[in-house]
Automatic annotation (TrEMBL):
Keyword list, A-Z: ATP-binding, Cell membrane, Membrane, Nucleotide-binding, Transmembrane, Transmembrane helix, Transport
Its membrane topology: Multi-pass membrane protein
Signal peptide: none
UniProt domain ABC transmembrane type-1: residue ranges: 20-320
PANTHER family, per the entry: ATP-BINDING CASSETTE SUB-FAMILY B, ATP-BINDING CASSETTE SUB-FAMILY B MEMBER 6
Segments traversing the membrane: 20-44, 74-92, 150-172, 178-196, 264-283, 289-307
GO cellular component, one term: plasma membrane
Location in or out of the cell: Cell membrane
InterPro entries per the UniProt record, alphabetical: AAA+_ATPase, ABC1_TM_dom, ABC1_TM_sf, ABC_transporter-like_ATP-bd, ABC_transporter-like_CS, P-loop_NTPase, Type_1_exporter
Protein name: ABC transporter ATP-binding protein
Any one GO MF annotation of this record: ATP binding
Record-annotated ABC transporter domain positions: 365-592
Length: 592
């Protein structure tokens, strides 16, 4: 319980004060409900017999002190008061609930945002090792479950516990014997549900795992729809999804049914007790009917308010148990990622200033004995790479598949941090200010990631609509040989490219990627097999535009087509993570 609370408060840090206000509001609603329920009693007792004024100390006290002229006038006033209490109670309850929901759902948004920020700031290796379906599940589903399945039920539990305690105090005051019996019934109920604790936790885990698995399967099946259709493996995904949906349905239905069990068990228990109690009472204390009706009245009050409060409390505890897995997941993500990238996290919040950070690059970038080993890999992917790139020069990286070209580029991009060695710009390590280094680089990956938006937004990727520089945009389009294509499109640069750019050809996608790198006007351009998907004619055009950048931009190009790197000042041939050969195109390629 203490562990649960400390994790819960860790996730909601900075919100503790607001949380206390929410608890206070919940308690106020409960209090209003108790007062409301309690106020009907005196009214009914007065209405059935006006003589009750004399028998009830408080009714009598108010009657004589406020100097009512008649008992009927007193009854009218009490009735009016009860009406007012109920209206005020409903109004305040509505207001308080509104505030509570605003806070709770606001928290859901904030938690999602916080997770997204952490994922964006996480080291690249974190993303290599994690499935995006799990991250989506955490950002969307787990935060929702945290709020709906943990935070709100926790607040509801606190308020119900307060109602229960207030009513029990009231009952003890009225009839200790009957209260003891009710307490006994509630205790049996509590013990019964204690047994379900672990099973609910298990169902919670099952529900969460199966829903993450469902997102993963949908991603795979629909994400690779072309392959799915051609191979004809639709039924494979259907069957797998069906299995997970079944698993999800079973665990959720069991958890929800058992969460509501308290109501179904406590009710008949209470009725059994009332009837047995009445028979026993009649058998042993026949003459004291008045006493019996007052005791039954206590039971009635209990069943009106105490029963729902208890079953709500137990249901909420069950819901919390079922959703504890969400707390565990969010807590672990927060803790691990915040600790791993404490500094990075604080800078990412300030991402607007980040994009302006700059490092001076006037002469040379040098890679000195760079060694990189992937987490859990048995051998190094890079084994002591030494490369020098002069400003304005172009270098080409070649080598067989698996020789380490992409890894080297990822290290240069600052996505992977080498275990040994350093990268220096004019003698300054890039690790002194990685963001500033990255602000020097434009990158065209092997497969261009396009968003389902216009060509314009895809080129000016990550730039707010009103901040798009149209001159730069047209220059980039021109240099990437996209002008003709855009002229032919019905909506020009406003044409939507479809999810992952499905409405464009492979070559066109590649050119949009190149235009993106050019739009951002970075000093160093990194092309990772940028021309692999282009037809000969387009490739020649793009190669030409890359060649035109020679001497203006510093370029690092990975290419399988040797024609792309013909113009490079220096070629590095990699093998097993080492530089096998380096020199001019003639020296390295022609003498192969
Ligand atoms: N995430 C990873 N975890 C472990 N090992 C990896 C990972 N990614 C790549 N490797 C290994 O690192 C080595 C270099 O891979 P890399 O992708 O850099 O080669 P490459 O030259 O770019 O190949 P290609 O031309 O096929 O893209 C390979 O042996 C590969 O198996």
């Amino acid at each position: 319980m203490i562990k649960f609370l400390s994790k819960f408060l860790y996730v909601l840090r900075g919100k503790q004060k607001k949380l206390l206000v929410m608890i206070f509001l919940f308690l106020c609603i409960s209090l209003l409900e108790v007062i409301g329920t309690g106020a009907i009693g005196p009214f009914i007792s007065l209405a059935t017999n006006l003589e009750n004024i004399e028998q009830n100390y408080w009714l009598n006290w108010v009657y004589s002190n406020l100097k009512f002229t008649s008992k009927n006038q007193y009854l009218l006033t009490v009735g009016f008061l009860v009406i007012i209490i109920f209206y005020v109670k409903s109004f305040l309850s509505f207001k308080a609930q509104k505030l509570i929901f605003k806070f709770s759902f606001g928290q859901q948004g904030e938690l999602s945002l916080k997770l997204m920020r952490l994922y964006l700031a996480a080291p690249y290796t974190f993303h290599i090792n994690r499935n995006s379906a799990t991250l989506i599940q955490n950002i969307i589903n787990e935060t929702s479950k945290f709020v709906n399945g943990l935070m709100i039920p926790l607040l509801v539990s606190i308020s119900n516990a307060a109602v229960i305690m207030a009513l029990i105090a009231l009952l003890i005051f009225t009839n200790a014997m009957a209260t003891l019996m009710i307490a006994l019934i509630l205790l049996i109920g509590l013990l019964l549900f204690h047994n379900f604790k672990d099973r609910l936790g298990y169902w919670g885990k099952e529900g969460s795992e199966s829903s993450a698995e469902m997102i993963r399967l949908v991603n795979h099946g629909l994400g690779g729809i072309k392959e799915t259709r051609v191979i004809g493996c639709e039924s494979y995904f259907e069957e797998k999804l069906q299995k997970q949906a079944q698993r999800f349905g079973d665990s959720v239905s069991l958890a929800v049914s058992f969460s509501n069990l308290p109501r179904y068990v406590i009710e008949p228990f209470l009725i059994t007790f009332i009837i047995i109690f009445t028979f026993l009472f009649l058998a042993f204390d026949k003459d004291n009917y008045q006493n019996l009706s007052s005791i039954l009245g206590v039971f009635a009050l209990a069943s009106i308010r105490l029963l729902p409060a208890t079953s709500n409390l137990l249901s909420s505890v069950n819901t919390i148990k079922y959703n504890t897995i969400s707390l565990e997941k969010i807590y672990l993500e927060f803790k691990d990622l915040e600790q791993a990238s404490e500094n990075k996290f604080t800078t990412i919040i300030d991402s607007k200033t980040e994009s302006k950070l700059a490092i001076s690059f006037e002469n040379i970038v040098s890679l000195n004995s760079v060694v990189y080993c992937y987490p859990n890999a048995s051998k190094n992917a890079l084994e002591g790479i030494d490369i020098e790139i002069k400003k304005g020069n172009s270098i080409g990286l070649i080598g067989k598949s698996g020789s380490g070209k992409t890894t080297l580029v990822d290290v240069i991009l600052g996505l992977l941090t080498p275990q040994h060695g350093d990268i220096k710009v004019d003698g300054v390590s890039i690790y002194d200010d990685l963001r500033a280094w990255q602000n020097l680089i434009g990158y065209v990956p092997q497969s261009i990631f396009l968003i389902d938006d216009t060509i314009e937004k895809n080129i000016a990727f990550g730039v707010a609509d009103d901040a798009i520089d149209h001159e730069r945009l047209y220059n980039a389009i021109e240099s990437a040989q996209l002008t003709e294509l855009i002229k032919q499109l019905p909506d020009g640069i406003k044409t939507v490219v479809g999810e992952r750019g499905v409405l464009l050809s492979g070559g066109q996608r590649q050119r949009v990627g190149i235009a993106r790198a050019l739009y951002h006007e970075r000093e160093i351009l990194v092309f990772d097999e940028a021309t692999a998907a282009l037809d000969n004619e387009t490739e020649a055009l793009v190669t030409e535009s890359i060649r035109a950048l020679s001497g203006i931009k510093t370029m690092i190009i990975i290419a399988h087509r040797l024609s792309t790197i013909e113009h490079c000042d220096r070629i590095y041939m990699l093998q097993n993570g080492r530089v096998l050969k380096s020199g001019s195109y003639q020296e390295v390629v022609m003498s192969k």
